[in-house]
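Inputs:
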Amino acid sequence: DAGVIQSPRHEVTEMGQEVTLRCKPISGHNSLFWYRQTMMRGLELLIYFNNNVPIDDSGMPEDRFSAKMPNASFSTLKIQPSEPRDSAVYFCASSLWDRAGYEQYFGPGTRLTVT
Amino acid sequence: TQLLEQSPQFLSIQEGENLTVYCNSSSVFSSLQWYRQEPGEGPVLLVTVVTGGEVKKLKRLTFQFGDARKDSSLHITAAQPGDTGLYLCAGETGTYKYIFGTGTRLKVLA
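Outputs:
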């Protein structure tokens, strides 16, 4: 079975450009999470969805960040305009959210570099 | 703000040695998980502990959840180079949402 799929794996862009990261969760999972990982701040939860509905976006750093989940098999995280401090590895994770202690399955991540 | 502090931050040991990694918070968690992350990959779940005082074993790895559900430890016996990686604890905040610890980067030398 395919795991969580993220694209692109690497993205290099210039400051001010729009960046769109994509995620395909595991089929049958009902929850999707977007995380950002940096050396300084570790792994931070940005936003998560349950049954395609955003539940908590309190981790989204600024209005420049937006996330959508139009259906159960696809989600995007958009940064517009991008800034150098957005450089990080962005992970998408999915899970079957049915009880406490559920397992999150992480994708391989997208390494974003903003110059 | 809930914080999960892990110690040590970095650990470099020889193959065959034992080690313990700690995960501490002032907050109570519904459950706590441990993940291992290798370079270029996402974290992979090792274990979930739910009950205060719970101990779980996974081959050479032993995980314990504190009695008050505020802290946890991971003990590795006879470490091997394959154990090398970033170890992350994650506490469930009660809303099916996890916050991740600061991480312990382990390197096991052959």
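Remarks. The first strand of chain B starts at residue 5 and ends at 7. Chain B has a mean pLDDT of 94.
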